[in-house]
Amino acid sequence: MAEALKGELAGRRDLVGQRPQSRGRRSSWSTLAHLPKHLQTAIISYRRQADQSGDLDPAIRQFLDRIGEKETSDSIMAKLVAFDRGQVELKAGTILSREWNGITYRAIVVDDGFLWDGTRYDSLSAIAFAITGTRWSGPRFFGLRDSTVAGEDEP
Fold it and tell me: Distance (Å, rounded) from C-alpha 34 to C-alpha 36?
């Protein structure tokens, strides 16, 4: 796969005009020429993956189209965080991990709640309380939600 990408990057110098993309989109190879190799590789890799496995979900594409260039970076981040909050769906068997006071704790998602330390809990918040002795947002404690300050370890 890496060799194919290298060949595609090398071959772009021989291409003139536009390279067809999936779903009718076209992207000029000349627009990639000013970018560093690592970004060119990332863009080509993404396009190949999208061509093979499908592109962004319609809801995500619509969200990105709506925010456009007229938004500030702060308002975009706020909207992305709000959008992401609605997208977290935990499936049975998922293992959530958190290091607290030098000890790694793991909770397992089951159909009717969560398992931690051999006990079933209805919420991640109950597990976070059992671990820390302090009331926490369980999703925040396990990294499923943003923290107010990066690296903050307080409830």
Answer: 7
Prediction pTM value: 0.42
Using alpha carbons, select from 79, 92, 90, 102 the residue that is nearest to residue 143. Answer: 90
Helix (H, G, I), strand (E, B) or coil at 33: coil
What DSSP designation does 147 have? -
CA distances from 3 to 35, 53, 123 (A): 20, 20, 47
Give the whole-angstrom CA distance, residue 122 versus residue 49: 38
Which of 147, 107, 109, 98 lies closest to 127 in space, CA to CA?
107
Closest CA to 137 of 148, 102, 86: 148
Q: pLDDT per residue over 95-106, tens digit each?
A: 999 999 999 999
Tokens for 49, please give them: 């993956």
